[in-house]
Specification:
This protein is of the alpha+beta class. It contains 4 helices and 5 strands. A hairpin with a 4-residue loop joins strand 1 and strand 2. The longest helix has 19 residues. It starts with a strand and ends in a 19-residue tail after the last helix.
């Protein structure tokens, strides 16, 4: 199959698929290719950009250091905004999250500290937890 951008005598440009270049020419000469807008049969190929596939081994352009800094700053800002409506529970995080999951405590948005092993255990139990993407200073350690 081959695709052509075609143009009618009225200036309308449209796309059409053909089995081959020869099939296009045969159908055009027979008046079977018509403009879908005005039904004109005076059709010719329009100028079209070639479809060139990108190299499979081409690496995308690396982000600039300024772009990375900007993204990290925005991520830190978004996390800080989210933590404003979250309760700091310190090292009681795993116990509180588990209790909420089991219905033993009301659900709330919390953040705190726990060990990697305890975090993995929470995930294995189906407790919906996620790590913070940016490091934070616990409230009791702020000046």
């Amino acid at each position: 199959m081959i695709v052509f951008d075609l143009k009618c005598g009225g200036g309308h440009v449209f796309e059409a698929w053909f089995a081959s270049s020869g099939a296009y020419e045969d159908q055009r000469r027979a008046g079977q290719v018509r403009c879908p807008v005005c039904d004109d049969c005076e059709i010719g190929k329009a100028v079209m950009a070639p479809a060139i596939a990108g190299k499979g081994n081409r690496k995308p352009d690396a982000p600039t250091p300024d772009a990375i800094k900007s993204l990290m700053t925005e991520l830190a800002h978004q996390q800080a905004e989210a933590l404003k409506v979250s309760e700091w529970v310190g090292t009681a995080f795993a116990d509180r999250a588990r209790a909420m999951h089991l219905g033993e405590e009301r659900h709330a948005t919390i953040h705190g500290q726990t060990s990697l092993a305890e975090a993995k255990a929470l995930v294995a139990e189906g407790v919906p937890v996620a790590p913070l993407l940016m490091p934070m200073t616990p409230p009791e350690k702020l000046n």
